[in-house]
Amino acid sequence: MERIVGIAEVRSFVRAEKAAGKTVAFVPTMGALHEGHGSCVAVAKSLADAVIVSIFVNPTQFGPAEDLSKYPRPLSKDLALCSDWGVGAVFVPEAKEMYPAEQDVWVEAERLSKPLCGRARIGHFRGVATVVLKLLNIVQPDVAVFGQKDAQQAVVIRAMAEQLDVPVRIVLSPTVREPDGLAMSSRNAYLTAEERARAPWIHRALLLGRELAARGERGAARVAAEMRREMEAHGIGEIEYIEIVGARDLSGLRRLEGRVLIAVAARVGKTRLIDNLVLEIKPDGAVEDAMLF
């Protein structure tokens, strides 16, 4: 496995791989890697001959009151995991090369960035879309893999690639969970033991939403209300949102129809956690688990 710091060097690596007739898959990350990232790498390996992972804690997607300085950066551990996963190269750019001057040009999904997390994290998805486009332009992969846990991010990135004609295939990897259902996240490390015990009720509330849909409930507001009661009854009271939206365009839904995203954001202690389920509501009433795309 090769560790690469400079933009010119990673471009040279990719050119050599493509000159050898290989396809290239790319997995962008902010480090603090876990098996959720490992799942993305596994999907990438199944789709291409060579896999590149980037590790870059992107400052432009953190708000003034968010945890940029505290964000975990266990680089040695991350590199060891990438080696274990069979990654061909790890791109670890420096902020001064990614942002050599004050950023004046931004990528913004005006509509898709407004709902869900966009209400509380003003400017977050502008920073995400901008850095992802920069990374895709630098690496120029054939395919890029992202996790479904960050559902709104995935929808924004797909729209960015489609609408700006970026020549890369965007693919999702399913959410990877702990044995008790908690979605794997770098931020789980912030939870105290007591908070960690409560956190799985976010996923259990999502399962309740799926169960209600399977029993025939189609009212989005009623499903969300029952999920909220479930979370609050088990100690998760600081709920930012529980929303049911269209999986492709994040539009609010009054009824569960077609492919829907049930998304939750809540604080457990001081830690903000997000999770979601995607359901396909069939015309015959059947309910199936699905992917965003």
Word description of this protein:
- It is globular and about 55 Å long.
- The mean pLDDT is 97.
- The chain has helices at residues 7-19, 35-47, 75-84, 95-98, 124-139, 151-163, 193-198, 201-214, 220-233; strands at residues 2-4, 24-29, 50-55, 89-91, 143-147, 169-173, 238-246, 258-268, 271-281, 287-289.
- The chain is α/β, with parallel strands linked by helices and 293 residues long.
- It contains 9 helices and 10 strands.
- It starts with a strand and ends with a strand.
- Helix 5 (124-139) crosses helix 6 (151-163) and helix 8 packs antiparallel against helix 9 (220-233).
- Helix 3 (75-84) links the parallel strand 3 and strand 4.
- Helices cover 35% and strands 21% of the residues.
- The chain folds into 2 domains: 2-173, Rossmann fold (3-Layer(aba) Sandwich), CATH 3.40.50; 186-284, Pantoate-beta-alanine ligase, C-terminal domain (Pantoate--beta-alanine Ligase, Chain: A,domain 2).
- The protein has a 6-stranded parallel beta sheet, with helices on both faces. It has a 4-stranded antiparallel beta sheet with strand order 7-8-9-10.
- The relative contact order is 0.13.
